[in-house]
Every structure is written in structure tokens, then in C-alpha cells.
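Q: What would this complex look like in 3D?
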Amino acid sequence: MNWNELYELLPVGVVLGTALVVVFLDLALPKKERYVLSMVAMGGCLLALGALAETYLSIAAYYKSTPPWFAAAGSAPSGGFNPFILGGAFVIDGFGLAVSVVALLAGALSILSSAHEDLDSNLTSGEFYGLILLGVSGMMLLGLSHEFLTLLVSLEIMSISTYILAGARRDTPGAEAALKYLVLGAFSTAFLMMGIAFFYGATGGFSLAPASLKVLEQIPSSGYLLRGALGLLLVGALFKVGAAPFHFWIPDVYQGAPSGVTGLMATGVKAAAFAVLGRLAFETFGLTYSYDWCWVFAAAAVLTMAVGNFLALKQDNVKRMLAYSGIAHTGYLLLAFLVSRNTTEAEAAEQLQNAAFYLLAYGVITLGAFGVVGLVREDGRRLETFDDFAGLAKEHPALALCMACFMFSLAGLPPFAGFFAKFLVFRSAIDAGYVLPAVLGILTSVASLYYYLRVVRAMYLDPVRPAALGQEPVPARCRYAWTSNLVIYGAGLVTLVLGMLPQWLTGLVW
Amino acid sequence: MFYLIRTQEAGTKDEVHDNSVSERARGVAPAMEDFVFLLAAGLCVLSACAIVTCKNPVYSVILMLPFFLGMATLFTLLQASFLAAMEIMVYGGAILVVFLFVIMLINLRPEDLKDDFNFATYFTYVVLCGLVGGMILSFARAGVPHDGPLEKAFAQEIGVLQPDEAAPKEAAAAEGEAQDGASKPAAAPAPAQRKGRAAFGSVGSLGVPLFTQFMIPFELIGLLLTVAILGAMVLSKKKA
Amino acid sequence: MHGWLLLGADELSHWLGNLLTFRLASCLALAGALFAIGAWGVLARRNVLLVLISVELMLNAVMLAFVAFARAHVNLAHVTGRPYAGESGQIFALSIIALAAAEAAVGLAIVIAYFRNKGSVDTREISSMRG
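A: Here is my prediction, written as C-alpha cells for the whole assembly.
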């Protein structure tokens, strides 16, 4: 093992180092200067983004062009660079780096949108930021891991830190969310582990490289073991992304967790879980065996879109509505995983790039939306129902405008990022010959306009909250927090820019 | 429809059922192995059933002890002596005690233990989980045909050599290979291949790969334990 | 031919005889059975502590599968061409012990936090949120 290769993992190292610094800095700082912690954590994330860019540029230099989406498929790099670093434990390729970017952005934004919480609460402590950073490092490692043992351990680092973060506020909904998340997360991890056991039984190793399946030539009966492995792994991974038969934990967990953490779970954790799905389906099993996995994705996508959108229609709580909308978006994302017999490697890579764009756009929008939900509160009581949002536009026009942007974007209306993301995904599904799922996706996104526009209607058209039983009408109030405002306005801007100039990002990266 | 399975069926069309135990190159005492396996497996299944059906969690935790003992016996049978020791030490010694400790800590009242027995619900889950177990079982049985390479390799005696007795056997093995090198192909690896390694499943045989090939995941587990420590702090700190 | 749905009496006794001997397939069958029992405990029981114990049962089943495969693969390294083909399975099982310990520690901390808030360890009482 060449330890110099650890240098390629510098972004993860920066995040881990920042986590340690933040945890110990908390001990040295007086309580009223705790805001420094969030700044340090944020700075660490930005530094890690810089390190990620450095890694990207350095490996791009080896390839003399953009690095391949999957290192196994691309042309061999020059200069003795081996993308499979540390004895094949990790791989440095476009897919892993894209997942790392989404994870880092999710971590940075959720740190910023938690910074306004009370100084006494757990949500501003060094341990909290440290756990967010550790979870982000787990997500980055998950995107880069190329072997089942590292994959599982990274997955556990990510999951266990999010279980804790969900319950970090130590109130009743938080404890319920953490408990539910833990039990169902551990349950799904057991399925994932059983799948890995079968994979090991078939191939004798843990490598995610497609070459592992060569064992079928020597031991043909391993086909059954591999098929069992694929099934169990997909069950575990679909649990983690929250696809339809296994979606039931999402609403409670998203609603009970603090808003910033919910944003992290809805974007970073989801992106990392999709990374597992993408690597398994597109790299390890690959297009040769697409008949074994594609129908699972098609069924899960159809079911997830239908269930998520249908249940979102009847929600009264904005956070819960966003959770169900997250399920629906998982369904749209799964459409990007549908391939046909004729799909080439390049087209498959492009489909995953579409999925990555979707994850990035959806992540920014969702983090912004949860940022707004985290801000709207009154005398310490969190206001989360549609009624609580009534008349927000009169009080906070800028915030309401951003929230409207996010809602239009989630619904997939044209000038926003969500439209372009959905367009790419639906087009790739239709190209692969899955017209019916794509049509269902379009129909359900039209239906989803109803519940997204309910938020906009409440903010702009409804009068300020009606007085309940003789009380004075009380407008929804927001805490002033420039960190959260930064997240929200930044996300709003990115939503607009990505929607109008998507080729700016797509041209930059691939 | 399913590519993975099609490749498999082409390969095993002429498979014959052959149950003769004598054909399997077994360990020292096959009958004894079977007997101990059945005993340990029965213990595991019975105690597992008891664990999940017990009304009082204290009984469940106590019943985990025979379960772990049965597991450790199975691990020993499967040549995983270090894991057997770890099973007893970590599971039996640490995890079980933590569970017991928490049960004592939260001090359940009898009315907390009531579990309104709902036959329909329980039966639904029995069917569901039976389906899951049956799927695992059928994929395992189809993937491990009983004269396939996996099963043969399983029944084969593991070529373990202690360093001091390595030399004569190695010479004999090399001689044997020289004589019928072609007629004894890959199916029977010479024990000499594992020369100089510690006995399979011992601390030594696991330690070397753990600190070379699996160094990175091993370090990552340290990170995971850091997360757990931080988490315990966050969750159990007193409310300010 | 693997006639699963069409098991005749002959095949059934044959299969049962195989299951009752110490083979890879019977170890995997045991692992599958323990996995299913654990899954039943997670889904059907209400007491959170029992649910966590059931998860431990499932993880033990996974470990058993790994160790059983490891015993086969230690003799198959010449076919699969893997370094440490057998040891890697046992190392994975060892890692599962560590993961289970971390998960149990955090899980029990969450159970205590839940108990402090609710005064109960009943999963069906996770119902303050609905919809």
C-alpha cells in the first residue's frame, strides 16, 4: 500500500481535522462566543471544497482531460497515477468527487442554518458541529469507497452521526425521530450486510470493481449467490434513500429532527445512499447485468413517485410535506437509473451525471426551504403548519420570495433549477425506453403543484394568521439570523442561476 | 430475463445429486462435527426464538448468553477461533452487560411490559419474515450446490501448517505435485501454499491482513467509535 | 435441477439429510433462519430494547454467513485469485462486532433519551407525529 496516496483523501482529512478542532475549541470558548464554532466549521467545509477542487484538477492533469465518471471504464491515466488508491479501498473518479461536493455543500449549509439556535441548546455546541462534520466525512468516504468493507464502515459513520444529530435537541419529537431512524437504519444495514455476505460468498472478496464478477466463469453457481446479494443490497440501499416500499420512516424522522439536520438528511445522506446505488448498479454489476437490477429501479421509481406525491397532498405540516416531497423526488431520481439493452457506457455515465445534477439542485433547494422552515418561529415555538406561513410575504418579503422560488423549483416550473433537473431525468428515462414511468413522473409533478403552491398561496394570498378564539392576530415572526439568511438567499440565487444557465455547471464539470 | 441465473443454469445442467458423505474429504471426525453443529444450531435457533418472544426484556438479555455460546461454538467449528473468543468477550462480556445495565437503569414497571398479543399482526410478520428467510435460504441453496466448488472447498481440510512441522509436509506436497501436476489441477491446493502462515482463524492469521490490506477500514472503525463517543456525550448531557 | 416448489418426498428427505449435516449450505440456512427470527423481532415487538436485541440477532446471523463462506474461500483462493480470501471474511465479521458495539452504545443512549422524554420504551407510542 502506497501511503502517499492518502494525499488524494486530503478533503476528507480537512473535514476530520476541522471536526476535532471544533470539538476541542468548544471547551476553550466562553458560551457567548460560540458563534465562532460555526464559523470555524464553515471555514473547514470551504477549505475542504478547495482541497476537493485541487484533487480534481490534479487528477484531470493525469488524464489530460476531464477524469472519467467511473475510473474502471475510462482511459488509463498517464504519469503512473492509479485511481484505485490505498490498495483499492477508495477510488478517485468523477462520480465520487461529485458526491463529495454535494455532501460538503449539504454539511456547510446545514451548519450555517443551525448557527442561529440558542446558545444554551445542543445545536450550537462543538459536539454538534463536530458530528455534522464527521457525518459529512462519512458521506464523502462513501462516495469514494470502492470496497465493501470501507463502504460499510463509511455508511455506519454517516448513519450513526445522523441518528445522533436527529436527537440532538433532546426534546420528545427529536428523541422519537432518533429512535425511529436508529431502529430502521440498523434494520436496513443488516440487510445490506447480508447482501455483502452473499457477495463475498460468490466472489471471495469485497472489491466493487466489475472484475469481481469474473468469478462466474469459474464458479457458475455463484450466479444465484450474486443475485441474492444484489437483491439484499438493493433492499438495504433503497431503505436508505427512502424509496417507496421502505419510505415509512422518512416523514417522522424529517419532522422530528431539527430543521438544519433535516436538510442534511434530505440532501447529504440521500446523495450518499444514491452513491451506493449508483456504484452497485452502474459499476459493479454494470450494464451487462442490467436486466437483473433495472426492473427493481423501475418498480421502485413508479411506486415512490406515486406514494410520495399522493401522501404529500394531504399534509398540513410544511416540514412533513417537504419530507413526502423528498420521497417523491427520490422517485424522480430513480428514473435516472433506468437503462435499456442498447445503453452504452457513455450514455449510462451521462445518466448518472444527470442524477448528480438533480441531487445538487434538489439539495440546494431543499436546504434553502428547510432553512426558511427553521427560521419561522414565534416565542421559541416552531411554526411549521401551512397556517403559520400565512401572510409571511407582508412581514418578510425577501424570505417569502425565496421560499416561493424554492417551491416553484421543487415543482419543476421553468425558470428554476428544478425544471432543468427534472427535464434531464425524464428525458433519459424516455431515451432508455421507459416512457410510462416518465409520463407518470410528469403527471405526478403536475399534481405536486397543488401542495407546493399551497405554501405560496399561504404566504402571499392568505391574510395574516386568523385570530383563534378571541386572541389578537399574531403574525409569524422570524428570528433574525444572518447565517440562515445567507443560506436562504444564496440557495435562492443558485436556484435561479442553475435554472437559467445549467450549462454553466454542466460545462464546468463534464 | 435474468442474466445472472441464465449463466448459472448453463453451467450446472448436468449436475448430479450425490449425497455420499464418504466422498467429501472431511475433517477428523465428521460424525462428531455434524453432532456438534446440530447441537449448537439447535441451541442458537431455540434461544433466538425465546429471545424475540420473551415478555420480559431481562429474560431476553439473559437468554442471549446461550445464543452467543452457540454462535461461538459454530465459529469454532468453522475455524474461526479468534472470532469465537471475540463473540464471547465483546458480545457476552460488553454488549450484553450494557443492555442489562440499561434495563436496570430505566427500571421498567410491569405495566410497561404488557404486549397485547395480536395474532393477526404477529402472523403477518411471521409470513413476511418467513419469506425473507426463505429467499435467503433458496438463494443460498441454489448458489451452493452440494457438489459445487464452494461446498467442496468447505468440506476440504484447511491446509494449516504450523511452522515447525511445515518442512516435511511441504516436501511431500511438492513431490506429489511434481508427480501428477496436471491430473491434480486447481481443485486441490497444496497445503504448502499456506506455508509459514499462522493457523487459519487465529490471531496471527487475522492480524496480518488486518494491518496490511484492511488497514484503512480498521482505522475508519476508530473514527466510528469517535462518533459513538461524541454521540453519547451529545445525547446524555444534562439539559442546560 | 433445483425443484423448489416441486419437492418430491425423495428430494425432501435428501434435502433434509443434507441440511442436518455440517455443510456450507446448512450453515447458510441457519444464518437465514436466525436473520428471519431477528427481523420478526424488529418488526413485531413493541419494546425498544427487544427491538435492539433483535437487531443484534440479525447481525450475528450475518456474521455466521461470513464465517461459513470464509471457511470455503480459504481453500478457493486459487480460483478467485484473492489475497487473504478466507481471512477477509473473518475480518469483515470482526468489523461487524465493532459496528454492532457502536450501534448498541448509541442505540441505548437514544433509548435512555427517549425514556426520559416519554417515560416508556414502547415503539407504538412513537405517535406524536401523524400523517
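A: To summarize the key features: Strands of chain A lie at 84-85, 90-91, 377-378, 381-382. The CA atoms of residues 305 and 413 of chain A lie 17 Å apart.
Q: Very helpful, thank you.
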